[in-house]
Amino acid sequence: MIELLTILIGFGFLFYFKDKVDKKIDLLNDYRLKLFEDRYNSLLKKDKQYFMDIKELSRHIVLLEKELVKFTKNKEDKKNIYTLKTKK
């Protein structure tokens, strides 16, 4: 009878401590998950900012290309003023 009581008390403590350890592990996993979510959100924010920077740079490149074409066209027109050749 005493052996049975000892075994029951032992299993009771075992399950009690197992439950406490499981709770601590769950808290630790939740903390790690929150850290990973924060890192993921910051990377997403950086990615969006990077995309916006690329869009703005591509807009500037297009404007510069237009200005370059305009400039070269004006240069060609000025060059043709001094020659007798006409454009075909």
Which SSEs are present, and which pair or pack?
Blueprint: H1 2-81
Produce a short descriptive summary.
Helix content is 91%, strand content 0%. With 88 residues, the protein is mostly helical. The longest helix has 80 residues, at 2-81.
Q: Alpha-carbon distance between the termini?
A: 115 Å
Radius of gyration: 37 Å
Specify the structural class. mainly alpha
Give the helix tally. Answer: 1
The best one-word shape is rod-shaped
Instruction: Give start-end ranges of low-pLDDT stretches.
Output: none
How would you characterize the largest beta sheet? Answer: none
Strand content: under 5%
The average pLDDT value, as a whole number, equals: 88
The number of strands is 0
Q: What helical percentage do the residues reach? A: over 70%
Oligomeric grouping of the chains: single chain
Order of helices and strands: H
3D structure, described in words:
This protein is mainly alpha-helical and 88 residues long. The protein has 1 helix and no strands. It is rod-shaped and about 125 Å long. The termini are far apart. The model has no long low-confidence stretch (mean pLDDT 88).
Please name the defining characteristics of this protein.
single chain, 88 residues, mainly alpha, 91% helix, 0% strand
